[in-house]
Amino acid sequence: WEFLQRLIQYGSNGGSVRLLIAEQVLADLPDSQCRFLAALQYSKGLALYCLKADQPLSNNGTLLAAVYGANGITGWATADNESIAPGPDWGHAVTSIVKGDINSGGEALQLDAIKPDFFADANTTIPAGTVRLSVVDELNVSIDSFGENLWELVFDQVPELQKKFETAGPAVSIAYSDKYIKSPLCLRLFAEFVIAAPAEIIDSKTNLNVVTVPLDDGKRRNTSPMYFHDNWQLDNQRRSVATQLMTLMGWAGGDVDVLERRSVPHYRELTITWSDTTQWTMQLDQGFGSWVYTGREHFPFDQGVAQQASIASRINPGLVARHPKFNTYFFFDASL
After folding, report:
1. Measuring CA to CA, how many Å separate 184 from each of 249, 252, 292?
2. Which one is predicted more confidently, 171 or 85?
3. Taking the complete model, does pTM exceed 0.90, yes or no?
4. DSSP 201-244
């Protein structure tokens, strides 16, 4: 997300950004990522290109990035699969990433521009019984009304779904999978959505399970977190705050568990399950990271869990879309 934000900022300030995707990678992309890329291409200054498979890289290398200038193209490539995915240390492993001129004569890469509708037409056919909800600024509201407004948008799309929820009885579990529940802001938005769910589906036996990844995979940043949108640095702190936050916000269900796993799917998914194995599923294109807030809210990361949970439950600035120039999507079952 941080890298993407910088690219979008660069494009909105008059720069030109080309995101290159190898043919085979493009063909193998899951639907959730295709939907995200389709929306991304409506951002100012950003364009997506397919990189043809016959690029002349030795040792079965993979092109990571290219910068176009008046004197040609400078590229970064690697033959090390572990160096392909961007991360905090990307580009610093001098033994696995090489830099060089691709061609001093100009346009050497064989690129095919990909139109946004390519994904919609070719890769993201919405299954029967699934509803797509597109959101731009409809959730630019105060944090404490985020959950109610999101559920209202869902039920406005499928009015009969609300009746199904109200008569389905209490669920046995609500499970959410998201690699990026790392900040108090994202956790609070998730909590608002769960707390605002129809009361009929939650009782004392409804368990809440959140599955995410360890914070920074064990790596620590050089700067200490200060603001509500910053990430925690300790897994046990995030876990304990999440449990107390749900209680303070009125969670009427059973146990609350936050589980860290090394391997979590990229897509964000909420699943509600009933005792007869009936399920309702929602996929969130960009999760709860699609919103920022107005102003600068400090957060007491250096204080105890109880104080953090208390502050996290009371902060209430206005929300704005992180990237107002393109939509975020929710895909959910039309019925139970």
Report:
1. 14, 21, 12
2. 171
3. no
4. G--TT-EEEEEE--GGGG---SS---BTTSPPS-HHHHHHHHHH
